[in-house]
Design a protein that fits this description.
heterodimer; A: alpha+beta; Jelly Rolls; Arc Repressor Mutant, subunit A; 4-stranded antiparallel sheet; 9 helices; about 45% helix; elongated; B: about 70 residues; alpha+beta; Alpha-Beta Plaits; two-stranded antiparallel ribbon; two-stranded antiparallel sheet; about 15% helix
């Protein structure tokens, strides 16, 4: 499939470039597709390219030694990922996985640096993109560092749990995250931990509190 | 009747990302807005809610005490 100039215009990296400049950039780009679940690149592998999402969505995540996953971001059309190792010559800082069928445009490491020399305004665009990325990560670090989420999630479940007699609350994970002052992914992991501890059971669209006393102890802990 | 994700059609911008990540074909585009098709195959994976850039999809959990 031909690399679309119209799509390149919409990418923040190439904002402000004229038709001739976009045409010269187009020759550096290769297209890549991925199927749902396919890992596009692995954390700590040598970095080969940065990617722009043309269609679909890509999950960026890190995995602990124990196999726990922390999602750093979801990359949607027009956005980029794997920028950092292209500029600092290090390995991939995180893994990237297609959430559904995706189409990507890639730029190889050496060719992007050549683009910066030929088109200096691109450097300012890149700085803006990376600055926004830093701000997002600072917010995530704040959530993860300062908040004992599992206790607050336990408290939220107890406050909103219904029984067979009365009306039952319905909350999305995003709403629980907003109440707990954290990210949705952290709520998801907290619910999984509570399930592993045996205090709740996760069903298709229900959270069942199986050990209320234990959940109350978690809610009260600091 | 199967419990299904809820779409706020005023927030939906028709980007179709949810449809691309859905594994059970529960979501279709109708007149540039996503609509839910009831199906027992929906596993409540939450991917549609996660990927939506406008917060138009909700997959709420009922919280009950056993």
């Amino acid at each position: 499939m031909a690399i679309e100039i119209e799509f390149l215009k919409s990418i923040p990296y190439f904002s402000g470039l004229g038709p001739a400049e976009l045409e010269s950039v187009r020759h550096l780009i290769f297209e890549k597709t991925a199927e749902r679940g396919e890992v596009i690149l692995f954390e700590d592998d040598p970095a080969e390219a940065l990617y722009f999402v043309v269609s679909g969505a890509v999950k960026i995540f890190k995995t602990s030694v124990e196999g726990k996953e922390q999602i750093l971001s979801i990359v949607r059309p027009g956005e980029s990922f794997n920028d950092v190792p292209i500029f600092d010559d290090g390995p991939n800082p995180a893994s990237a996985q297609a959430m559904g069928p995706v189409i990507l445009y890639g730029v190889r490491r050496g060719e992007l640096k050549a683009t910066l020399k030929d088109h200096p305004p691109v450097a300012l665009n890149i700085i803006k993109v990376l600055a926004e990325r830093v701000r997002q990560l600072v917010s995530l670090v704040e959530d993860l560092s300062f908040r004992h989420v599992i206790s607050r999630v336990a408290k939220i479940l107890l406050e909103h749990a219904g029984d067979s007699t009365g009306p039952r609350s319905r909350l999305t994970q995003q709403e629980m995250a907003a109440m707990a002052g954290t990210a949705r992914e952290v709520v998801a992991r907290s619910l999984k931990s509570l399930e592993e501890e045996g205090t709740i059971r996760l069903e298709r669209h229900r959270i069942v509190v199986t050990d209320k006393a234990a959940l109350q102890r978690v809610a009260a802990s600091s | 009747m199967a419990e299904m994700p809820v779409i706020d059609q005023e927030k939906c911008n028709g980007c179709g990302l949810c449809i691309s990540v859905c594994t059970c074909k529960a979501l279709v585009m109708v007149k540039n807005v996503v609509t839910v098709i009831e199906t027992e195959d929906c596993g409540w994976c939450l991917q549609c809610e996660v990927v939506c850039p406008t917060g138009a999809i909700a997959c709420p959990f009922e919280i009950v005490i056993e």
